[in-house]
Amino acid sequence: MVKPGSRSNPGMIPQSTPFPRVLDALCLITGALLPLAFAPWQWYFLAWLGLIPLLLATEDPNGGRRFRRGLLFGAGFFGLGLHWLLPTITTFGQMPLPLAVPTWILLAAYCALYPALFTLFGGWLGGPAALRFGLTLPLLWGGLEMLRGAAFTGFPWLSLGDSQVDGPMAGWLAAVGRSGTGVLLAGFNGGLVLALRAATRKRTSRVPIPVVGVGGLLVAGAALGAYPWTQPSGQPLEAALVQGSVPQRLKWDPDQRATILDRYRRLTSRSLDADLVIWPESALPVFADQGQAYLDRLDRAARERGSALLVGAPERARGEDGRNRQFNAVLGLGTASGGYRKRHLVPFGEYVPLRSVLFFAERFVPGGGRFVPGSNTDPLRVNGATAGVSICYEDAFPRETATPVRKGADLLINVTNDAWFGRTIGPGQHAQLARARARELGRPVLRVANTGLTFAADHRGRTLESIPPDEPGVARVRIQPRTGATPYQALSAGWIPGFVGIALLGLAAGTWRGPGAGSASPAEPRT
User: Fold this and answer.
1) What would the pLDDT profile of 265-276 be if each residue is shown by its tens digit?
2) Of 59, 281, 350, 400, which residue is the catalytic one?
3) If DSSP codes are grouped into helix, strand and coil, which group holds residue 345?
4) Active site residue 342
5) Residue from 59, 315, 342, 350 carrying the catalytic annotation
6) Can you tell me whether residue 48 is helix, strand or coil?
């Protein structure tokens, strides 16, 4: 029986040592293992189990311990999942190691703050265990993931839903998107916690209920994945994806400029029989106006052959104030109509935030970090098809990728320069994002990277053709544009964040106990 004034602990966490330290270790270990659910390993089933220690940590009545365990989980998850950023910063950003290490640690620590807030706030939510683990805590997890993807321009890398693109839960991406799939994955973990609780308390009659629930998520995900949300649109398109494979250390070397331009010219000249030819991000090693004569020759050759040619290039234009604006752009040549300027820029990659304070960072950012965002979200017309274009890590933002689709795009194109990441796990993680967006929107995706991973995937995110990393070449693929809408296409207009926000407010109002409350639910016996 609980003594008067004491806090009960109805969960599975004995407060005597050494178990609290064991749970600390489990949070760190499971966090460190969770990146294996993502590419290049794609052990997606780890996302079904990886949140269990984190959910158990919310049962501890001590807020400090809860916060510590969430922080340990986040340190393992983002410390290992983002370890590739360190060589990127030092090798290609040319930042000295004494500055690079703290920069990487700060980013990982910032990301780790979100699971720490999850365990802290999660302990303040009451209600029956089935409600907490099956709904309230999953919604809290999803809400915090969405906040990480939006705050300070957003950093949604390693969002849980993206890990499921090849598994039986992949069908949920088309239904509720990455964020909704993340909520369901947290609920999957919560169902296993409920089954484990019932088993350890010898309430075997209750074990099948959550087991049926998690099984239902898998069956429904498989069924949704098999359903044809979208339909073929028009004629198939013959596409040529050009991977120049120019090492980053040579990309902007003036002595290499002629060699780079000649390589792309040769790879392209034998591919202009295709309906669509695509170059990677910033393939042109000069500003577009500096290479205008070269581009004009390409434009004429593509028009003569009836080919649409998309060229990644830095672009500059003079504003009304007389100053040049720099854009990361895709230029439409040949029969292509329109162009695209990147809208979601990379902090410290394309621009320096708070420049007056962080002026010293300019020397480590390409071009001094003076790129500005574009504004046009209209799709491009490419030989009878309509393409929604994204540049670099814009494909990490599902709602932004969905905008041109809602305007009529029937295929997706992503151009990128992952040479920055070297031979790390970064390119694999990034490529998985493009396939997840294809799943969400029911559109095929053509992804062209400077050094890889270049590939084409169908509307279910399945790879059709690819080029090995670090090899120059052209991937030829016949792709079928598609029309129609997945449920997520409608939700991407803002319904998911709104729904999660309203649901969290409603549930919190009904179950909030606040700091200092014990972890017992009023519905559970205090014995």
Assistant:
1) 999 999 999 999
2) 281
3) coil
4) yes
5) 342
6) helix
